[in-house]
Amino acid sequence: MSRFLKIKLAIVIFFIFIFGLFILYKLVYISKSESNSYVTPKILYASRGDIYSCNFQLMSTSPIMYNIGLDPVYAKTKNKNFNKEIVQLSVQLENLDYQSKDSFLKKINKCIDNNKRYLSIKRHSSISERMQLKNLSILNKGRQSGYVEEVIKTKRFKPNNNLASKVLGRVDIYDKDKAYLHFGEKLKPRGGIEQAYDYLLRGKNGYLLQKKLKNNVSKTLPSFYTILPKDGKDIITTIDLGIQELAHNSLLTNLKKFEARFGTVIVMEVKTGEIKAIVNLGTLYSNAYEEDWNYAVLGNPLYDGFNKMEPGSTFKIASYMSYFEDGGTSNDTINTFNGIYKVPNTKNKIIDSEKNLGVISIRDAFATSSNVAVARIILKKYYHDPEKFIDRISNFGLLDKTGVDLNNEFNPYIVSPNDKNWSEISLPWMSYGYGINLSPLQILVFYNSLANNGFKVTPKLVTHYINDGDTIKLKRKGLNNLKICSDNTLQEVNKILKYTVTHGTAKSLNNLSVNISGKTGTTVTNYHLKNEKNKTYQSSFVGYFPSEKPKYSCIVLIDKPNPEIGYYGSDVAIPVFKEIVQGLIYNDTISIRKDKKIDLNHIKENYIL
User: Fold this and answer.
1) Overall pTM > 0.70
2) In a designed cystine with 243, which of 277, 316, 412, 586 is the match (CB 3.0 to 4.6 A)?
3) Per-residue pLDDT tens digits for 420-433
């Protein structure tokens, strides 16, 4: 058969199918204008699965609710004591504050006079309210005496309010005129775990045929083609609500203090990649901080006024790792001059916040976060072979997605010599985190690899699902066998990350009862503007602890803090990181430094989970 005939046949079959659906619709649904009764399909909705924390605390659910009513006409014909018992019911309803006695009796009489077959008693009743109503007069006799009950769909409910709201996602409901040929509603998950694991949560709807009678009364028709619904499966996440609340409150406090635009925090287990907390708070849609965008995974919002998310100084460790992989050590020295360096063959200057450092070791250059030092090191090493530097960055996993079990994670962007926008400034700028696009989660997974003896792990948010009462582990492909660098480089890196906390920009963390390793970041987000007074910043800190045997890695990023209050990562982000560590020290099995004493009373009062 020719290609033309195949296309023609496909079109004919398509139109026959559409016409068949139209005929079926007309056969099943006969309008009220043509008949006093008509037959329609009724969708039997599957119950959507619940989402639980790692400790089996409920995080998202679809509560079962009921519309409870009475067929007064039918009830009167079936009950000899109807008049007496209906008065008893009216009194009982008034005592429960559902309806007043007189109003209810008037409605009953009106329904009987007008042969109206349905009267609503309580809409959107909970399970406990339903049980309460079913014990009342007349209603306790069941359907044979006029009791009418309808299970109704409810909106997705998050009992912990704003906690982890964005990573959980939401579920929207289609209007009836857009789904199931006007006979029902469809759910559409949007974002987060709800969307990524919809295939487990949604279940499978069923249907039956019903005969619609007068006065909103329906009668189920026995049918061989009735399909019962299959409920969705519950899933268990990695989120620890105690850690989530700790991180949420710590971030919220500092966002308000520094009048920032948005912020995010991620806490992850080093060995497993299980995300224990992921907070996303911003003011995109209101003046109050709310979970409005998944900054942790998606980076900056895809709106006007937001550029790519450049990590800044937290990327410097990757530059130094490349240097170490090619034979350098942390004891090597570099001249930073007076803190100002003009990039060769350009008009651009690189400026350090701390001036006049002169000749310093790589260790001190990293600890003081010198831009001049890292730019000069990378230029000297890779100016004639920038591809080698890019290859090193790729080997570290920084050009790959993390593989987190959420939809829409973007590919990291790092400019390469083959790009049209590559210039003489690209290599030195890249060395301290500009001209690239990495999400906070992508940066954290990289640092987590350093904490995990160089092995990269895949971050995860869901570990198990529940099927018929059995808890079943999800099987996922991971990256746990991928080592990103040599042991020698790993030693050098861990040395300078810890030194940054003991002697560098993160030394405010050195008074904790555990050793921390990590790096501050202070990124100018609108460096294209010439007016210095209008500069805006992203402040961050990423690290892991305890340094000797890391259990957790964590990143804190705060966008657009008020510069008049503070904007350095050491001032804005570190206090949040510090508070999270203090909370975990009290509530977790983290080894305490022998040279530090912990104030348990202070921590118990402020950080108990």
Assistant:
1) yes
2) 277
3) 989 999 999 999 99
